[in-house]
Each structure stands twice: as C-alpha cells, then as structure tokens.
Amino acid sequence: MPIQVLMPALSPTMEKGNLAKWLKKEGEPIKSGDVIAEIETDKATMEVEATDEGTLGKILIPEGTADVAVNTPIATILADGESAADLAKVPPAPAKQEKPAESAPPVEAKGPAPAPAAPAAPQAVAAPDPEVPAGTEMITQTIREALRDAMAEEMRRDPDVFIMGEEVAEYQGAYKVTQGLLQEFGDRRVIDTPITEHGFAGVGVGAAMTGLKPIVEFMTFNFAMQAIDQIINSAAKTLYMSGGQMGCAIVFRGPNGAAARVAAQHSQDYSAWYSQIPGLKVIAPYSAADYKGLLKAAIRDPNPVIFLENEMLYGHTGEVPKLNDFIVPIGKARIARPGSHVTLVSWSMGMSYALKAADELAKEGIEAEVIDLRTIRPMDSETIIASVKKTGRAVTVEEGWQQSGVGAEVAARIMEHAFDYLDAPVLRVSGKDVPMPYAANLEKLALPSVAEVVQAVKAVCYR
Amino acid sequence: MAAPKKSAAKEPTAETGNGSIAEFTKEQELKALRDMLLIRRFEEKAGQLYGMGAIGGFCHLYIGQEAVVVGMQMALKKGDEVITGYRDHGHMLACGMDPKGVMAELTGRRGGYSKGKGGSMHMFSRAENFYGGHGIVGAQVSLGTGLAFANRYRGNDFVSLTYFGDGAANQGQVYESFNMAELWKLPVVYVIENNRYAMGTAVTRASAQQDFSKRGVSFNIPGEQVDGMDVRAVKAAGDKAIAWCRAGKGPYILEMQTYRYRGHSMSDPAKYRTREEVEKVRHDSDPIEQVRNRLLAAKITEEDLKKIDAEVREIVNAAADFAQHDAEPDPSELYTDVYRH
After folding, report:
1. Nearest-neighbour CA in chain A from B139: distance (Å)
2. What is the pLDDT of residues A365-376, one digit of tens each?
3. ipTM strictly over 0.85?
4. Are strands A3-6 and A73-78 parallel, antiparallel or unpaired?
5. Between vectors from CA B14 to CA B251 and to CA B195, what angle results, nearest 5°?
6. A399, A407, B210, B332: which could form a disulfide with A428 (CB 3.0–4.6 Å)?
C-alpha cells in the first residue's frame, strides 16, 4: 500500500508550518535519507528527509502552502511495483495523531479538581493600553518580531547596545528572535558566544560595568542557573557595594517557564527566584505590545533587568502601536479586562488562563477584573490594591510553583494593605508542586488550567 | 611561552621566573619601595584595627605579596583596568586610591570608597579604573574578561589586568573566560597570584597541574611563571604581557609565585603550614627587603630609608585616624544605591 508522508512536528512547540519547497517531483525515485521537501517552522527552515524508499507518487500539499497542520498528509510514496493506480488505496489520514487513552487523573483529597484539558493556544489579547494615544495606527506582528524590532530600534539609537548569546548571530537566534540583527549590525554588535553561560554572563556584566549596555540572551532561563551567581552577586549588587559608583545597565533575556514536552530541566519558571533580589528589575510581559515597549524600556534602564519571555508566546500575534518610540514604563501593571466581582492577578503565560477564565466566568455573571502585572519587580501594588478594594476578592494565577511564589507575594501585599476590604481569603492557582513531567497528560496536570482558575474564583465568590 | 616547569611548592626566590629581570633605576627602586611599604604598613595597621574591633567581618591581608601589584602597576598605563578578588587592599593602594578612603571602608564609615556599604572585599573606584574587590572566588575573572571585551568593543588600546589566586584558578568560569578571551583576542592579562595556599589547602593538595602558567595551554594562551617576590621581575613580565595584549594578540597569563605571610583571613590560625616555612620566605625573599638591600648597596643611607618609612607611617596613621573618627553612614543610606534612577 502507498505510504503517506505527514507534516512533521519539527520543534516542541510547532503546531503548523509552511511547505516552502518540494525538492522531488512526482514520479521521481526516493531513497531513505533523501531530502524531499523544505518546511518553514516558526523557528527555522528545515529539511524533510524520506524514511521510506520508493517513488514520489503524489504531492498532496503544493509548495508555498502556509500553515499546514502537523500530521497533515503532504505526499504519498509508492513502493516498488506500485503505480499511480494504487494511490486510491491510501487510507484516510488521521485528523489528529491518535492519543493514548488518558488514565484517570489522580484525585487529590483537597484542592481543585484537575483540569479536563489544557487551554487551546492563546491569542495574546489585550485591552487598549493607556500608554498609547487614541487613534494610533496598530500593526499586527508576532511577539518574536516585536522583540526583534525592540532590540533593533534600541541598537540603532545607541551604539553602546549590543547583543551576545548562543546562536544569536549566524543561526539568527535559537528561536529566531534575533533574526536579521547580524545582517544589520554586524558581528561586532551581534555576538555568538560559546556554550558558556556562566562565563558570558560575567563578560557581559564586566562590559556593563564600563558603561556598555549588553543584551545577554540565554537560550532559555533554565541555562541561566549556570550564570545566576554573576546575575545576582555581580550585576545586582555592584551599584550598592560600590556606594553608587559603578552600576550595571544590562538586560538578561530569553524564554522562561514551561514550553511543551521538554520536561523538568527545561520547564522552570524563574519569576519568583529573580523577583526576590534587590537591585534587579524583573519583567514578564504577555501582550505583543508589552513585549516590545517593555524590552525597549529594559534596554534603556540603567539597572540590571531580567526579561522573562515565554516560548509558547513567541509565535502569537498581537497589535503593536506604530509609534517611533513606543516605551512601556517598567513597574506598571495594566488592567487587561475591567470587572467588579473579583480580581485576577497574573502575568506572562498565566494571563492566558486568567483571560479565558474571565470569559467563562462572564457567562455565569461573574465579572473578573484581570490585572496583567507585566513587571514582577518593582511590583505595582497600587493597581492590585485599588482593584481589590473594589472587588473584595482576589485570585492569583501563575505557572510557577506556589511556595514562596509571586502569587504568595501578591497575597501577602493584599493582606497587608487591603485586609479590611477582603470578603474571602486570597487563593492561588499555580503550577503543581512537582518537577515538570514529560508525559503529555501529566504535563497538562502539572500546569494550571482555566478550570482551576474558574473554580478558585467561584470559591472566593462563595458560588 | 611557558617557562620550564618548576615545582609550585618550591619557595619563590630571586632565581625563579624567566630570568629577564629588568634593572631598575634608583627612582624606580625608590618608588617600588615606597609603594610596597605603603601596602605593608597599611595592612599591618588594618590587622591592628581588626584586633581592636574597629574592622569587622572578613579581612584578608596582602602582606608578603606586595611586589606583585606594585610591579604590575609600574607596567600599565592610565586607562588600563584592574580587577581582583577579595584580597584587594594592596591592589587599591597600588592603583592610587586614597588610603583614607580604603581604611574608612574597612571600618564601615561614610568616607569609605563605598560609603561603608561594601567593606573590605567590595570596593571600587571609577576614577582610578579599579573595578573591585569581588567576594565570590573566580567571579572577577569573567568580569575582567568583560572589561577587556569593552576595550575591544570601543576600539581603544587599554588592557584589563585581571588578578586571581591559585584557588580561583580551579573555578570553571576561569576556563570559560580563557576560551572567549583567546577566541576574541581580548586584551586581558590574567595575573595568577600563586601564594601556595587556597585558604588552608596547599596547591599540591588542590591542583592537578601546579604550573599555573600552563593553565591556558589548551586555549593557546601564552603564560609565564614569574618570581612574584622580585618587583623587577614582575615589572618585566608585566611589560611583556601588556605589550602582547596592546598589540591585539589576545590574552596572556602570568603566574606570580608569591607568598602570604598572614593567615587567609584574620580568623585563620594557619595551622596548615609551619612557622619555619613562613620565616624562611620572609628571611630569604621578602620583596621589600630585596629592594632595601639593593638601595643600600647603591649608597642610599639607612637614614634615607627610615625617612621613607616614617612618611609612609604618617600616611597610614592619618588613614587609620580618619577611619576611626569618620561618621558611620547616615541611616538613610540603607536605601540608596539599590537602583540607579
């Protein structure tokens, strides 16, 4: 029977790709290992190799087709002795990869029931931003492009700004965030480093102590644990230890938190870790506009800034104001959705659960006010407290762990400054207290879910 | 390239090193003597103040190693950067930082270089291009490499002098830095001050390769062992290494074979070595005595030398006096300098 070639998943986060080019024609013989097509993923252009031998029978997806879902049949290969007439025998393609039966999720004695399903891929939705003048033209771009543009604009503006990290130059960024920067700025300012996080973080800090403004990209913040001594002991503390003589204007950026199916060592959320350190600023945006405006602000800030991105959001699009110099102030939260019954506080990927939950809750008559913290440190207590004084209830949502987490900090501040306004204890929805598992079902369970947020909100609303 | 292998355990003498000892003029000898004496008297006074409780926390004295920083300082030019670890008082004085400001930082007073907020291990001077004073063993090596990176980025011809000890030489980031420095041809002289003990652990017990000048071999970084007790040998090696860096040839390693007379810190009873060992180094190869003897042989009188010593003592006493009478930082300083606005 003819063999189907399916659109392959070429990265942990790839859901669809573009069929850039066919390198074999119908009727051409194919050996195992031959490159038959080129696929553009959200990160790179990849070659697809044949794993079977035979003849390319039929091309099902013509080249130039965009957004082909993973597992879509893209061609058929005829085995020896088969002819075009056999093509009809091809079985219907599975619409989706068959899933193993999900085992019943473990039921905890207490706490919210596990979510039935993870949320669908979020759109980076954002309410109008007060920083943007009314009538401003908006352009739609991916978060990846917003980050790139922010860096390019700042590098054009200030010759002391440069970027260094693994694969930032010739490879165009491990996640394509630095695409085109090498071509525009050259290898003096776009610098590929060896795989040496501790070392290049220190080199960046040393350069910053002389007044340069490095952007240090970590391929992910998981790898920055190798460098955390330089970030905390050297970058964050030097201004204080030098009595104000020697500061350090540096941005450490890269993807943070869980991507997809990359398990415990590559899925950690560092928001709480860095947010404890005086001397650091910690930013974790959600919307495309905030990614751009806050990265520009971070690069201009005279202090060390931890800029936490989310790999799952890189490919998501949003509206970004078309302004010459769009800056979002560090340390200001944003009310992403106004409401009066309960305050939801979140940031970065957590916002996707919070906003979806708010939609669900609205159907049941509960209007949630959703606050996007955007900056974890300094934390905009004012916006949180003002909202809680209005709603009397609050739930925090984060992918990170609960103990000593950012949600815990938010809850403490609410208790300290709005205790008398609370009608219920603050609840936290968070990642579960386990290392991130690999299995798809367990990973889903380890992350927060929309259902958990809905349930927590109902609990604080006594519904 | 690397000098012939020598046992690192061998005590440093005037004969070690690559033999290219520059003859000093009388003026250079006098300057070296004065600068080394300032460090020694300053450190002796710091030890005294520590004993009196005026200095707290950790305090690591540089006594015995004076020729290293003084010789290297004679080889660099204004604009070159200096960075080191926590045994940093000597480096700061050699850089020209005010002894009053350094001593007042040791006592935690507002007139200290860091307004009293850094202490012995964390002092900086933008004006003198001294980049610290770092308390985490080995961290200054990557930072110093970053200073060199900045020089290359700016296209100037300044050189970063990055000091660290035989203990720090076993930290991973040292080799990450070596790799990048050679890869990018960064102008950095790695000055490894081998004083034979990483805290209480002798080099022979901690280092598989005890010839530290060879620690850059796998990165193609040239290195030399230098008699770090002879200020002339240090200066000569420094001249050569700095010229190499200034010419854009990349990094250079100098292993300074030296010795610390005092304990690792003030609280170290130094039971890991004998009194005789210390006495022998002091007697045979003290860096200050070497210069004194040469000056005396060159017809400088004891009276002249005593005059220099008296001048130095006066500076140190004034620094100690200032450091004990200066006010503590204003309580409002607690919250300043956390962020730059």
Report:
1. 7
2. 999 999 999 999
3. yes
4. antiparallel
5. 60
6. A407
